[in-house]
Specification:
Domain UBC core: 23-167
Keywords: ATP-binding, Nucleotide-binding, Transferase, Ubl conjugation pathway
CATH superfamily: Ubiquitin Conjugating Enzyme
CATH architecture: Roll
Shape: elongated
Strand content: 5-15%
Distance between the termini: 56 Å
Radius of gyration: 21 Å
Largest sheet: 4 strands, antiparallel
Structural class: alpha+beta
Family: Belongs to the ubiquitin-conjugating enzyme family.
GO molecular function: ATP binding; NEDD8 conjugating enzyme activity
Enzyme class: transferase
């Protein structure tokens, strides 16, 4: 009887030491299992045990930004899904809806966010920004004006920025580090796709 009681005390102590899974973590885990992303989008978890902080790489295969590789960081707080994830572009890119600090103008990350939306909704929305940039709701006003008034020059600026050239004094990063890869943590299956890097394809 004494031995059984001692074992129970040890189990209780171990249970107390084990970190509790928050409601946000449970919801994020559910969102990740329901991801339905195309081959042009890949997630990366630097710490597989931390589901609340990760990155997404988008490699558009059509549109004005075709051939690029754009990385976004996701930081999710403990009030998710009542609060939207905080998303930033980790590179300086020439885009009407992304400013030079990496802030993203996407309505569902702001006033149109609802708890019924999920991470897949946000990721698809980010991809859409590269297919259909919106000059009517800009964060980078200079890029938006150029896009509206001189589309050919805007396209030239996009291509130039993707090669790492300065646009009106602002440096633009051509591509993320080739070491960036996708890794879905825990129970999530891992799918590998080619990452398009400017000037070539790197298959992981």
């Amino acid at each position: 009887m004494i031995k059984i009681w001692s074992m129970k005390k040890n189990e209780d102590a171990a249970a107390k030491k084990k970190p509790k899974t928050s409601a946000a973590q449970i919801r994020v885990q559910k969102d990740l299992t329901e991801l339905d992303l195309p081959s042009t989008m890949k997630t990366h978890f630097p710490d597989p045990a931390d589901l609340l902080n990760f990155s997404l790489t988008i490699t558009p295969d059509e549109g004005m930004y075709k051939g690029g590789a754009f990385v976004f960081s996701f930081a999710i707080n403990t009030n998710y899904p009542h609060d939207p994830p905080k998303v930033k572009c980790t590179q300086t890119i020439y885009h009407p809806n992304v400013d030079l600090e990496g802030n993203v103008c996407l309505n569902i990350l702001r006033e149109d966010w609802k708890p019924v939306l999920n991470l897949n909704s946000v990721m698809v929305g980010l991809q859409y920004l590269f297919l259909e940039p919106n000059a009517d709701d800009p964060l980078n006003k200079e890029a938006a004006i150029e896009m509206s008034k001189n589309r050919e020059q805007f396209l030239a600026n996009v291509k130039s920025s993707m090669r790492g050239h300065n646009i009106k004094g602002s440096p633009h990063v051509s591509a993320p580090s080739p070491s960036i890869h996708s890794s879905l943590p825990l129970h999530l299956s891992i799918r590998t796709f080619p990452i398009i890097i400017y000037g070539g394809v790197e298959t992981q």
